[in-house]
Amino acid sequence: QVQLVESGGGLVQPGGSLRLSCAASGSMFSYYTMAWYRQAPGNQRELVARVASGGSTNYSDSVKGRFTLSRDNAKNTVYLQMNSLKPEDTAVYYCYANFVTRDYWGQGTQVTVSS
User: Fold this and answer.
1) I need a surface site. Which of 23, 45, 100, 113 has the fewest CB within 10 A?
2) Contact criterion met (CB below 8 Å) for 98 and 32
3) Which of 104, 107, 84, 92 has its CA nearest to residue 37?
4) pLDDT 10s per residue in the chain (115 long)?
């Protein structure tokens, strides 16, 4: 069982920045595929960014060039640096892990971009 704990959400003005963190349990973290998803009210959950165990990343078109996903295997943590935030980035952000064909989710952290 993998537990995920997110932090770093909050209220920010358009154009601002936030960094989300997700700490994972387990001794095999370096083998996890990690990702961030988000879900805005009335919308389906969508992939924001993903990092494979080898470190390769991919991003949704809507955040490419503004968000950066990284992982620190020594700390069992992934970070989502979000810059140039827009009101349409407002959503609950969920941390996700995949390991040995099983999916794990965090409880989510709210990000609100508003003036």
Assistant:
1) 100
2) yes
3) 92
4) 899 999 999 999 999 999 999 999 989 999 999 999 999 999 999 999 999 999 899 999 999 999 999 999 999 999 999 999 999 999 999 999 999 889 999 999 999 999 9
CB atoms within 10 A of CB 8: 16
| Spatial separation of the C-alpha atoms in residues 100 and 104, rounded to whole Å | 11
Q: What does the DSSP 8-state code read for residue 73?
A: T
Contact 81, 72 (CB under 8 A): no
C-alpha closest to that of 68 among 53, 51, 93: 51
Residue of 88, 112, 102 lying closest to 31 (CA atoms): 102
Burial class (CB in 10 A: 0-12, 13-18, 19+), 66: middle
DSSP 111: E
Find the length of the chain. Answer: 115
